[in-house]
Amino acid sequence: MAVRKVVKVKRYPGAEPLIELDPWLKPYAAHLQNRFDHYRKFRAVLDEHGGPLGEMTTGHLYFGLNRGECDGKLGVWYREWAPGAKGLSLVGDFNGWDRRRNLLVKDRWGVWSVFLPDEQYAGRLRHGAKIKVHVVGADGKEMFRIPAYIRRVVQEESKAFIGEYWEPPVFKFKHKGPVRNSKFEIRNSKEAQSSNVQNVSLPYGRGSDGRGGLRVYEAHVGMATQEEKVGTFKEFTANVLPRIAKLHYNAVQLMAVQEHPYYGSFGYHVSSFFAVSSRFGTPEDLKELIDTAHGLGLAVIMDLVHSHAVKNVEEGLNRFDGTDHQYFHAGVRGQHVAWDSLVFDYSKFEVQRFLLSNVRYWLEEFRFDGFRFDGVTSMLYLDHGLGKNFTSYDDYFTLNTDGDAVAYLQLANDVAHAVRKGVVVVAEDMSGMPGLARPTKEGGLGFDYRLAMGVPDYWIKTLKEKGDEQWNLNEIYGMLLNRRRHEKHLGYAESHDQALVGDKTLAFWLMDKEMYFSMSKLTPSLVVDRGIALHKMIRLITFALGGEGYLNFMGNEFGHPEWIDFPRQGNNWSYKHARRLWNLVDDPLLKYGGLNAFDRAMQMMDETYNLLEDSFVEQLACHEDTKQLVFRRGPLVFVFNFHVIASYVGLRIPVPDAKDYRVILNTDSECFGGQGRVPEDALYPCQAVPMYGRGQSVQVYLPTRTAQVLAPVK
Q: Is the pTM of this model over 0.90?
């Protein structure tokens, strides 16, 4: 009798959860397992030091300037990690800038420290005192540097940046931040494809928190003022936060919070990671902004830059201890040529402590509700993803993947979710790395959302290259749904990227120079009529299909006409395009108000029907010849007519439920700048006329270049 041979099948427990969700990942099981093992290696070190809430994430309470005691005496400790340096001394107002007086002592880990007792320095080391550290580097060069963990940096009249000892009265927050309790759940593919789903009536109503899905208003404080200057936190709090709340967004994303020497970098060349950019105000001003936002029901998300750092030596971390490999990779690998910046070495313990503590610091000290991690694609790959299209899974699973950066991002997400319940962490990744927005325990990277970055690029490409009559509706529909299942996305039609100098906003692509001459309600213009109509339709279809959340950049909701261009030598240091023209939307004689009102109505629709967190999407009809597209998301039916001239009276469309349907949103409403050809709250009676496999249908009036959203009548 032959003995059956037992064949052992190699299992990859660290890869199985992702493969179960996406069987196409099976050939890459070994790579996924290696990724998970590398994360576990990093996590073991974190756990050895107290875990996500341990000492490895409290570096800001140890390094830099912190109150404490020594030999029973109260005072201020200053500590700095500078393993290659030959000598450090703390200098400032308190000691007459004498680098010989307060010398630091180095321990075996490369950490330097000095204690300044109150009995000697209480009257001199006071709140607001100017501070720097004198460093004798490994290369023998001597420089005055800004401490790495400094909380406050200001620019003097000489244009040089300098640190300040910051010890204000404790800020008292009045409001708790909103806690998201997402009920989003991806339906599995078998359920979505089964025929018995077609006529089911799905539950709908307000989300569990009464606010619907995540709707993010991306903003830059400095350019949020109409005046040609740098705006402040206080001005943003008083003037812009009420606008955001009135529009019914439920989160505001703040750019350029961390200190950066060059205003024109949009805040992406960070020099001091723990310091609030002083050009906008004080840290307490920022806390007041966040507290006020919380009082308005708005979560506040911070644009966090851990993907790279500014190359500046005097202001930043570059060559802090006299070497090129303290915080960053040495040599060529440490240079981000495309961004003219430096790349962190995420494998080092002190680099991890610095960055993980930074995550915790912003959540606890300022009560931010989450982060948008900038430049994630650049972190994931050794070549920073430059010039790659990422059309195959092979592009993700090669030696080009930076395992240390991946593991760091996993740790950062572990820390963020441990520090703050309901925290929201968004990844700016254009590569589509599998598992990016899945929990780390499943082998994912732990983000809650990823930006659907291909969508705005698609819209710009369409407007550049195709006439209206050439738009392919199935292509648009497919593109907006072309994202990784089981991972949540923030959909958007345009962000700040599409508005930067050298490009145009959607409104400007649609209407161009006519926006300067024909936006008055008293001035007829076919160009403007077309532009306003398509602006609403593009935003609505993106809102409906583009993600499980939505993002808009400040001013784009009302079709802000001009590009963003920060003061620079090339524009003679002008602020003309580094501001927002709020007067346009506030003027009742201009057409911008209609676009603004429409955007508000979209947000409110999600509040009422929890649209963004309903994963069930289904196409009901598509006619390329007559440019009609009908689909459902959850209980709502969306009907689009992209035809350039044809309107349709008595157009029959299939509907999911045997109920009458009412128009709840109509792009052609007069209050949205439309022509009002469809009565408000129009009711379409259900008819027992089968259509496309449905047992019922309705007949609608659908004017050219308009869209309607229909809800079943209970």
A: yes
